[in-house]
Amino acid sequence: MQVTWTNQEDQLILSDFLKEKGLSRRFLTKLKQVKGAIRVNHQPVRVTWELVKGDQVELDLPKEEANPHLAPNEGGLDILYEDDYLLALNKSAGQTCLPSPQNRSSSLANKVLAYYIKEGAENLKIHPVTRLDKDTSGIILFAKHQYIHHLMTTRSHLTKKYLALVQGQVTPTEGVIDLAIGRTEDSIIKRQVKQGGKPAQTSYRVLDQSNQASLLTIDLLTGRTHQIRVHFSHLGHPLLGDSLYGGQAGIIDRQALHCQQVDFAHPLTGQRVHLQAPLPEDLLVLSQRLKLGGV
Question: Catalytic residue positions?
C-alpha cells in the first residue's frame, strides 16, 4: 500500500514531515529497513532529506499478513463506502463483529478477510475502527492498514449518530446524559451507571413520541461498552427489545438501536466523509406500529 502527500513548506526535514503525519519513531525505523520505501519525487531518500514546497512524498507501507487464527468465510457484505484505505459496511442485527469462542468462523471479520483475499488485497490484517454490539445494526468501519487505523483513531474527528426506540416518553426532549459507567459485580458482560466508573456522555434529541415509546437520535460523545443501553435504562427508558437492561421483550427480537450515520476526516486527504445506513426493516416496521415518525 502506498500513501502520497504534497509538501506545503520550504526547508522542512523529511523526518519532521513524517512525524507530523503521525508516523512514530518505531514505524519510521521499520520503513527505513526497506530499500526504496521512502521516496521524494519518486526518488529514494533518507529521512534527513530537506523538502521544498511542492515535493511529492511517497511511502510504501509494510505489508501485513492475515492473522493465522482468523479463517476467511465468504458471505454477503453490504458495502457503503470503500477506497484504497478504508472499508465501511452496513452490519445487520445478529452479526458479530469479531470472532468469539462461540463464533469463530462467521463474524464480520471472517467475511472481510475473505473479501480482501478475493479482491487480491495486499494487506490482509483486519483493523476495525468502530464496533457494534451483535444485535445493534448499522455502520462498521475498517482500516486497511495499521497506520491508517492509527490515523482514524487519533486524527479523524470521527462522530457517530444512532437512532433508538426506547420505552416511555423521554423528558426533557433533548439533553446530555453525563453518568460514569462500569462493570456490574456479578457479570463480565453487563454494565451499569457506577460511581468511579469511566466517564460517559450521551447527547440525545427526541424525534417523536407516543404513549408507549420515544424515537431518539443519539450522538455518542464517548464510546463505553453498552453506553446508550446503560444510560437510557438507568433513566427508566430502556431500549425496546433490550432484555439485558430491562427493555420490553417480545416487541422486537433485539435491542432497537441502529448506527445510522458516521462522519470523519479522511486520514490522508483531510476531506470530510459522510456515511449513512438506512434504517433496517424491523425498526421501520416497529416505528410504524408505534405510530412514530421522523425516520
Answer: 133
